Amino acid sequence: MDIAFDNSFHDAMEGFYAPAEAAVPAAPALLVFNHSLAASLGLDVANAGDEQLARVFSGQEPPGGANPIALAYAGHQFGHFSSQLGDGRALLLGEVVAPDGKRFDIQLKGSGPTPFSRNGDGKAAIGPVLREFLVSEAMAAMGVPTTRALAAVATGDRVQRERAHPGAVLTRIASSHIRVGTFQFFAAHFGADHVVRLSDYTVRRHFPELADAANPHLALLDRVIGLQCDLVAHWLGVGFIHGVMNTDNVAISGETIDYGPCAFMDRFAVDTVFSSIDANGRYAYGRQPQILHWNMARFAEALLPAINAVDPADVERAKALVTAIPDRFREAWFTRMRTKLGLANADDADAELIDGLFDELERLRVDFTSFFRALAMLLRGDAAMMEALLPDPDAMAPWIAGWWAQLERETTGPALRAAAMDAVNPLYIPRNHMVEAALAAAEAGDMAPWTALLDVVRHPYAVRAGCEAFAEPAPEDSGPYRTFCGT
What we know:
Radius of gyration: 23 Å
Helix content: 40-55%
Distance between the termini: 26 Å
Order of helices and strands: HEEHHEEEEEEHEEHHHEEHHHHHHHHHH
Number of helices: 17
Number of strands: 12
Mean pLDDT: 95
Shape: globular
């Protein structure tokens, strides 16, 4: 099977990666293939059967035109700098240019050891692979910028973690795999010339309109900050907790990347943490904006040699961009929340209304996802859904009255406003208890629950008959939920 690769990073960025090869899996078997994504990428798989797809996207049969490489990067992990990380269990096969002209990486995850594996086996178990496939597809369906999953293939091997698990390989699609940690690696080890070279390539690939800026490296910093503010605001808006916002997990493209110990909020609590390794809550739901600020400060530090090389005075401008991040994020956040609340216009009362809402959600431990759908139902004159979420019908009456008063300052009718709210507030998300049940079944050999859940979360907004259970809040007795790194 040939793929029309156009491998710009491999060809232009020698010294920024290490050649590598996938380990040969014992008995690859296709678990799921994303045919619609393949079509959007322009991949011709019409004549490829499941067996060939399994061979190609497990690493057993490298496609023609591939130049497999493992990328170098560093990163701050839970605040501590690791000067060399890199693709320890991932292999970039190459890049394709889709019919719409956009460029994408095709990467295997869990395909075996690389020069950056640091004594690891470089493999992945079926659970983390299927989690990333499921959650990234849900995020894409909700319009959250994200990497995508093209294929999941069982390898026929066993992967030893706390116990032995069936092995699998994920094929990930990304606008690129350039990370904040990529810049940190070359700033730490090689200095200004390499940072300039990496920044120039990033601008050419992702933001060619910035090439004519007075200082393209400063313009790159500004653009990436804006993308990250919008991304994290979108995460918070759908109750998503990344779980491991290390700088090596921050993509310059503004896409969500590396779905390890991630999960979605059930009952609201600002300090919610799902990751088993985040003992101090560094990456809790409500701390994600602060970590965004911290991560972008690290990106600015790594870019400073390139910024300074063009104009030393721009170093102070870079500092000012970083200082302004909290205000910039809050603007993105209020824009996101106005949409969720059905508000068309900015108002001086927005801050009090939005901040007050989260105080109420915290006080009452309301199911986050269901709440916004219930608000839309109130506009339709149906209070049943809201009453089912609250401990008593009037528990949020003052806040709802304030929200309603703000709506009445605008001219949009209730029906149109409710429909607009339903178009941005998901009804179906990967509920944590359902994800775990589906992954457990898949590891035992039954893909049906996982496939059913995938189908539902790919259509998150419209009510579907027979899918009522997928929209229900987590059971009261579901207990604390913990996720683990795995891919």
